[in-house]
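Our consortium's second objective concerns turning raw sequence data into structural hypotheses that experimental partners can test. To show how far this objective has progressed, the report includes one record in full. It was chosen at random from the queue rather than selected for favorable results. The single chain below, 163 residues long, was entered without modification.
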Amino acid sequence: MLTWSERLTLWNQYEILKKLDPDQVKEYEANQEILSCGYEQYYSELNASIVTETVNPSVSQEVQNILDVFRAIKFSCKKYKYTPKSTWAQFEGFDGNGDEGHYGFARFVRRTLGKWEELADRPDNSHSSASLGHYRAMVDVWNRLGRSFDLTPSQIEQIADAQ
């Protein structure tokens, strides 16, 4: 998982930390032993704030497509002073418990990077496993309609009611 060179670099970082934070010497020495012996099953304990799995780029792209659908709906509603009938016309976030990185990536691009500012007032966590499937259907309809950011009220309802 880590190369010898990466392990050596991290080992040296812990050596420095032992000097800077003597109260944590025992923890740093244990981490050095994990690295020097190559105990991969304990690598995740070296820094619990770093998740072991990465977010697949296809998931990131899917999140961006979904957020763009809601951007198109929001801009079009504002342009035509239209209030959608469907509750699905409002972004409700992603399920924080059951997706493959959608929730975390969407929260990151919206809250940390400040993108999709027009959706800033919308929640991050839908608390529903149904959201992602419905959003995918909405993207499919939006794609068939040409991915326009200038949607008619009829197109907004068509996208929001996607199955």
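The partners drew two points from this record. The mean pLDDT is 94. The radius of gyration is 22 Å. Both points have been shared with the crystallography group to help prioritize constructs.
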